[in-house]
Structures are given as structure tokens and as C-alpha cells.
Design goal:
single chain; alpha/beta; 3-stranded parallel beta sheet; 28% helix; globular; TIM Barrel
């Protein structure tokens, strides 16, 4: 089944050892991670936007079919085109962009975001304010029935094997699943187990 599973980030020294072998250098983390999973969330882009060269280096460090899911935190409308332009440097390694919106419902804001992004780019909207509900025609984070893909973020570990089996049974083709980072390497362990189950 075409389900992509990964974690929220990869650059965690506390995952060594446990996930990264002892002695693995931090500049080797991404290649090691990408040999085991085919997607990762780029949460850093919601706080500090790297230059285009950094996105290109990340894209070059991973195999074909690997996808990055960058975060676009909507704080000011002027920043949106810049983020979209920068993450485009990932080329065919660009997965869905998670659009985090903290503010109450504003259909004008939504129209601006959608109009600033090439329609071919997949967007997953992460609405923090309940006033948004689930706007029709959008992929919303943690809606397993979203079309044409779903974007699932698992933020409340621990997860039992029964939890992961139930999740695997509910996933449809085109799903993206990300486990939250913790200091211990539990997220990659959960991700690896879920991949065994789908």
C-alpha cells in the first residue's frame, strides 16, 4: 500500500544510540534516516527558513521517492510566497506542505494562501482554532478520510502495538503519517513498526 511513514524531524543526537548507531556523525543522520523511511516533516521551516542551498543539499542527500513535508506557519501574508519559493528547491523531493494556521477562520486568508501556491503543490491545513471546522475541499491534518491524500500527525505517545495495528487498518493509500519526536528514539521505532503493519 502506498503509505508514507516517518517522524517529525531527524536531527536528534539523543537518538544515538538507539536509532542512530554509536559514532554516527550528525551530518550522516539524514542519509541514515532516509535509508529506512521515505518521508520526514521539516518543522524547522516554521521557525527559521533555511536558504535555497540548504533545501537543495537535503534533496541531494536522500534517495529517489523520498519526500520532505515542510511546515508553513501562517503569521504574515508577506512570508507565504517566500516560503513556497524556498521549499520549491527540494524539487521532486517536496511532499505536502503543512500549513499551520493559528488565527480564527478567515476565508480571505485561506484564499490568499491557496492563490500563492502552485495548484500542483499539495497542502495539508493544520487549523488550531475550532472556528475553522473542516472547510470543504481541503486536506486537513488528522482527517483520515481527506482526499486526495491524508496527513496524520501522532502527538501523544506512548502507542501500544494494538494502537499501531488499529491505525494501520484505517490507513488508505496516499496517507502520510508522522510520529512526534521525543528525546528517546521512540518515534522511529513506532514508524518502523507501523511500516511493518501496512
Amino acid at each position: 500500500m502506498d503509505v508514507r511513514v516517518g517522524t517529525s524531524g531527524w536531527s536528534y543526537p539523543s537518538w544515538r544510540p538507539g536509532f542512530y548507531p554509536e559514532g554516527t556523525r550528525s551530518d550522516e543522520f539524514l542519509a541514515f534516516y532516509a535509508a529506512r523511511f521515505d518521508t520526514v516533516e521539516l518543522n524547522t521551516t516554521g521557525y527559521r527558513l533555511p536558504g535555497e542551498d540548504q533545501f537543495r543539499r537535503w534533496a541531494e542527500a536522500v534517495p529517489d521517492r523520498f519526500e520532505f513535508a515542510p511546515k508553513l506557519a501562517v503569521r504574515g501574508l508577506d512570508r507565504i510566497p517566500l516560503v513556497v519559493e524556498r521549499v520549491a528547491a527540494l524539487g521532486d523531493r517536496l511532499g505536502p506542505i503543512r500549513v499551520q494556521v493559528q488565527s480564527p477562520r478567515d476565508d480571505g486568508l485561506l484564499a490568499f494562501v491557496r492563490g500563492s501556491v502552485d495548484p500542483a503543490v499539495r497542502l495539508a491545513f493544520d487549523f488550531a482554532d475550532a472556528s475553522w471546522g473542516r472547510p470543504e475541499g481541503l486536506v486537513c491534518v488528522n482527517d483520515p478520510d481527506a482526499e486526495p491524500f491524508s496527513y496524520i500527525r501522532l502527538r501523544e505517545p506512548p502507542y501500544t502495538d494494538a494502537d499501531l495495528q488499529a491505525l494501520a487498518a484505517d490507513l488508505r493509500p496516499g496517507s502520510y503519517v508522522y510520529f512526534r519526536h521525543e528525546d528517546a528514539p521512540t518515534a522511529p521505532a513506532y514508524a518502523a513498526r507501523l511500516l511493518e503493519l501496512v
